[in-house]
Automatic annotation (TrEMBL):
The keyword Transmembrane does not apply. Transmembrane segments: none annotated. This is Endonuclease domain-containing protein. One of its GO terms (molecular function) is endonuclease activity. Residues 8-107 form the DUF559 domain. The keyword Nucleus does not apply. Keywords: Endonuclease, Hydrolase, Nuclease. It comes from Sphingomonas qomolangmaensis.
Length: 127
């Protein structure tokens, strides 16, 4: 039953994002933010994250008021995503709505200091 509720909520968020998510998406979409390609509402394992990029491996979550009551679930979720190689960055709805420029400046710093992807020794450049 709980999974059905989560799936219905996720579908609703895809078609009608919250205003903070909409504002953030307008700043991130189409690789216009620091040349990073973000995807919105990306499925990673059992979770749907707000925004994710593969290079760098980064998840950006916009947390509403309900997240204050769900710290254990959020910690478990972040731990899983980090085990998949993602760095998880969280901002609140309030931060996005009142200081989007500051949020984007912080995120630009995170992107600039993200570790470079590890290339396979047997990749294209191998001799």
């Amino acid at each position: 039953m709980r999974n059905a509720v989560l799936i219905a909520r996720a579908k609703s968020m895809r078609t009608a994002p919250s205003e903070p998510e909409q504002r953030m998406w307008l700043a991130l979409r189409a690789a216009r933010f620091a040349g990073v390609k973000f995807r919105r509402q990306k499925v990673i394992g059992p979770f749907i994250v707000d925004f994710a990029s593969r290079v760098p491996m980064l998840v950006v979550e916009i947390d509403g008021d309900t997240h204050a009551e769900r710290t254990i679930e959020d910690d478990d979720r972040s731990r899983f995503l980090e085990q998949q190689g993602y760095r998880v960055i969280r901002y609140t709805n309030h931060e996005v709505m009142t200081n989007l420029e500051g949020v984007l400046t912080h995120l630009a710093g995170v992107v600039a200091t993200a570790p470079l992807p590890t290339l396979s020794p047997e990749g294209e450049r191998a001799l």
